[in-house]
Amino acid sequence: MEIIFNTSVWAAAVRVATPLLLAAFGCLLCAKAGITNLAIDGFITVGCFISVAVVNLCNGNVWLGMLGAIVGIAIYSTIFGLAVVKFKANHIIASIAMNLLSGGLTTFLMAAVFHTQGLFRLSNIKKLQPVSIGFFKNIPVINVLINDQSIVVHFTILMVIAMSFILRRTEYGLKVTALGQSEGAARSAGIKPARVCWSVILLSGAFCGLAGAYLSTTILSEFSEGMVAGRGFTAYTAVVFGGSNPIWVGLVTLLFGFADAIGIQVELMGTGIPTSVVSMLPYVLALVVLTVSSLSAKARENGKIILRRK
User: Exposed (0-12), middle (13-18) or buried (19+): which is 64, by Cβ within 10 Å?
Assistant: First the structure.
């Protein structure tokens, strides 16, 4: 019980949840436009590699590493865009292909660029310093979650609010939502589906690039094969369970981050629980969340049918 109320665990939960939430933003935008984007896991993987490569090349400059990952994955996502927008490929198949491509590409580039296999650790990285906001120091819960965190964490929290406003109050957000609800109706309203689809795919790439950069340069300071460990699929789970609502999606990713942080804490405490079991905790939670989400959707649908019959 002490672990649940441990402030260091909650602070770690926010750090772990940050790349999940950034990736979820990209997935959410695509979902709103009617695109099933499961390629975000591959996007994050390549983003991790690009950021580490740029940081290593630029004498440890993390800002350039993040910028390189954002721009690089936005460009890389055009491959997925060509498949689903230009050539009308099945979204799931295209996503699987992108994830396989990303895994093979980073393995090849790791040997070509870093002349090593499996793991490359940054030795000259200049990490981002934690930032504290004085206004929040006297607010107990907010102080733990926000202060002494990277500026990327603050940006991600602000993006939750910004995303809610953009999707509900701006012309662009309404176009994205309209396209996801009915492409025919969107065309009738003068919306160009291809243009909107391209925009959300490029934005998803940019968000995933930042997620990969944060993971590889702020949390780990390295690139290794398999380091993303399914975070893209976990982010997709958060979008499904959060009902594509940015605020709820943010809370779900925090829940996943908390599960991961508890797992790390339990492992450090030396409780004797096998490491493999501890590592399974976030994924078990993801399965539970998907099951609950599916049952809730089925219950709502059954309720609608009963009301129609009445």
Answer: middle
